[in-house]
Amino acid sequence: MVDQSQVEKVGIPTVTASSDQFVGLARSTVKSLGLPDMAFVEVEHPLGMIPLDEIRAKADMAFPKIVQMATQWKPNLTAIQKITPAYPAERIRFKGTYDALNKMFYDKGLSIGLPVIPPTPEKVADMLKGTTRKPGEIVWAVPPRMGQLTVELVAAYGVMAGCKPEHMPLLLAVVKALSHPDYDWRGSTSTTAPTNPVIIINGPILDELGIGYSTGALGGEMPVNIAVGYFINLVGDIIGGSVPPVNDKSTLGSRADLVAIVIGENEKANPWKQSYAVEQGFKPTDNVVTAYSSYMGSNNIDHSSVKSTHLLNTIAAGIAGAGSGITSCLTRMDKGYASTNKVKFVFVFFGPEHADTVYRDFKTKKETSEYLVKKTALPFWMYAPDICIPPKEFGPYDENTLIPRFTAAEQVRIIVTGGPGKQSQIWPTFTTVARPVSVLVEK
Fold first, then answer.
1. Contact, 119 vs 84, CB < 8 A?
2. Choosing a second label site near 249 at 20 to 30 A (CA), which of 6, 142, 185, 304?
3. What sign has the CA pseudo-torsion 248, 249, 252, 254?
């Protein structure tokens, strides 16, 4: 649809067929790109997981309307919208209680339901002292609404989320990572899946800012992690307009829609010594933010395995089942064997005690990932057969043949985080062409 909008802008008409449940998202996307409308033909939902005769019946009903639109629709080039300048941000005068202010913010669509700290001009100005960037600089046009996020608004939403001036370089690095094309923000924020941003932080900044990376790092009592996670969702929902039911089409959603996942790697407890950031080519002294879009995480609770391989086998079982229903087999780093719509990466958050157990026999993260790639397999009957299509070179198989999920060690990425206890977590990436993005925190 984004490509079709470019065609319409030069006066060439197009027709788009859309499920009636998703046409609102389609029209919103068109408006975000500066067009008043495009030609849409609505088809009764659902379009997937229905018998072929039902698909044909819906196609037959839609076809006359498609022909009509294709022959009669003309783009209205005179109505192309102009983007309102994003700087300076609008000022609102308000007098009332804190409760009344929070209600006003929510009623106006300026918050997402959690209480906010009022972004007064004084507090925003104080936040801006944490960066040398110009307040009017636009750092991201946030999909799907394509709202203009300026440095000033980063400061304002940082205030609302509970961030401090010293957090500004971190917030700007997070924005840089999320806005990178490889992240695929538009796809991950408007999907029906319960996806959420995962932010992994490395470097001296962990202790400098008090970012949680030990016991309970993903839970409460982690003010910086929570504030940064809240900031991300404020930006995505308010500036980007990704709210249900029109733009955010998540069938069920998740609590990470309120506060995104933000965690530090426990570099001090990492038996492999090399941090994730260093693996990606950064220096140990660099402060680095890694961002990727993830499905909801799951927990590995293995209190009994003493051997490294036994523990990794239980983790491999969890990885194999993650994203059940849409996962494909034998996913590759390129376009894949049958479809690009596959889980291409998974992050394993090893608790330090689990990491120590694995380290006894696996002296590098790469060796560990290689073993997990080999063991992360399911019998063919457990995959969705229309997605899991082994290539000819795989050889003969039947419903009980074990077929791996991955093909390369790079697809299983390891983070050591958390505190004492026999627990680890599995966080698979969103199934698009997206990749994890790592950027420097620039002061």
1. no
2. 6
3. negative
Q: Is the per-residue pLDDT at 279 higher than 70?
A: yes
Structure tokens at 378: 């399911």
- The closest alpha carbon to 153, from 89, 231, 108, belongs to 89
Q: Do 350 and 414 meet the contact criterion of CB atoms below 8 Å apart?
A: yes
- List, in order, residues 6 or more apart from 406 with CB less than 8 Å away: 330, 331, 346, 373, 376, 412
Q: Is the pTM of this model over 0.90?
A: no
Pull the structure tokens for residue 10: 């030069």
Report, as an integer, the average pLDDT of 409-415. Answer: 94
Strand 196-202 and strand 261-264: the pairing is parallel
Helix (H) or strand (E) holding 105: helix 98-107
Identify the bridge partners of residue 288 per DSSP, sorted by sequence position. 202, 440
Q: Cis bond leading into 144, ω under 30°?
A: yes
CA distances from 53 to 45, 81, 336 (A): 15, 42, 30
* 366, burial (CB in 10 Å: exposed 0-12, middle 13-18, buried 19+): middle
Q: What is the pLDDT of residues 224-258, one digit of tens each?
A: 999 999 999 999 999 998 877 776 667 788 888 88
Phi-psi region of 395 (alpha: psi -120 to 50; beta: other; left: phi over 0): left
Classify burial at 113, counting beta carbons within 10 Å of its beta carbon; exposed 0-12, middle 13-18, buried 19 or more.
Answer: exposed
Q: What's the rounded Cα separation, in Å, for the pair 210 and 188? A: 29
229 in Cβ contact with 235 (< 8 Å): no
Q: pLDDT-derived band of residue 402, with 50, 70 and 90 as boundaries?
A: very high
Supply 56's token pair: 């044909």
Rounded Cα–Cα distance for residues 221 and 83 (Å): 40
Place of tokens 């086998």: 313
Residue type, 84: T
CA dist., res. 284 & res. 12, Å (int): 53
Q: For residue 88, say if its preceding peptide bond is cis, omega within 30 degrees of 0.
A: yes
Average pLDDT, the chain: 87
Q: How confident is the model at residue 324 (pLDDT cuts 50, 70, 90)?
A: low
Q: Determine the length of the chain.
A: 443
Q: Which two tokens stand for residue 152?
A: 């000033």
